[in-house]
Design goal:
Length: about 240
């Protein structure tokens, strides 16, 4: 059988096209992911966002004669929650979101674990009373189990550590709120707030100073604030970075 050049070219083109289609089909089958495999990553991410447990933790402080007469801190096992506080002479309570740093959360959950809070019936109140210092309440809830402990002074190391940690957390949240108000409507208060910031920093009064770094960076470049406040923010940044 004699094939013309034109017929030969047509046959060759057909063979090449068929081979190309077969190769594409093979590659397509190789790259297909099963539904289970494709969803594995998303499931892992969602799993990581779940709390370690369903426990909720809270700390409450009350002293009607103090400037901050009432404060309530609530958070979950991931350290996410809110702080509510009331100032003396003001009726409205202020509520702000909070998130404990990894270091602070480790200290807090460690102290709760040391207390074995839900299993314990210990009274943390020391024999000597100091009601003028205010009343503190620790509360933990997990599923249907719940317990509250109240004291104004304690010799229990873990209970005292918790009270100190939550006090620092509350002071940090309140100062952040006050700075936000100053930046928005009271810029002349910024220098005084930077002085208060430094005082708290010197006496280890913050839950985690590193959480304040982004705020100080913003303040240092905020031209709505007095120059003295911006320069003070820069000095505070250097102190935190040194630590």
């Amino acid at each position: 059988m004699i094939v013309s050049l034109k017929q030969f070219a047509a046959i060759a083109a057909f063979i090449l096209s068929a081979a190309f289609l077969v190769t594409l089909q093979a590659q397509s089958k190789t790259n297909v992911r099963t539904p289970d495999t494709a969803n594995t990553g998303a499931a892992s991410v969602d799993e990581n966002k779940k709390p370690l447990d369903r426990a909720t933790y809270s700390y409450e402080f009350t002293q009607p004669e103090f400037l901050i007469r009432h404060i309530l801190v609530k958070h979950d096992a991931l350290g996410r929650g809110k702080v509510t506080f009331e100032r003396k002479g003001e009726e409205a309570a202020i509520e702000e979101p909070i998130e404990l740093s990894t270091a602070a959360l480790t200290r807090v959950l460690g102290a709760w674990a040391d207390l074995r809070f839900l299993e314990s019936t210990e009274d943390y109140q020391a024999e000597k009373q100091f009601p003028h210092l205010g009343t503190m309440r620790l509360k933990m809830q997990r599923d249907s189990r719940e317990r509250t402990a109240e004291f104004n002074w304690t010799k229990n190391k873990a209970a005292g550590l918790l009270a100190d940690e939550y006090r620092r957390l509350g002071d940090q949240a309140i100062l952040i709120f006050d700075i936000a108000v100053a930046r928005e409507s009271q810029p002349l208060n910024a220098p005084k707030l930077m002085e208060e910031f430094e005082t708290q920093l010197k006496r280890n009064g913050f839950s985690d100073p590193s959480q304040m770094v982004p705020l100080l960076e913003d303040i240092s470049t905020d031209e709505h604030l007095p120059l003295i406040a911006r320069n003070h923010a820069l000095r505070l940044l250097k102190k935190i970075n040194k630590k």
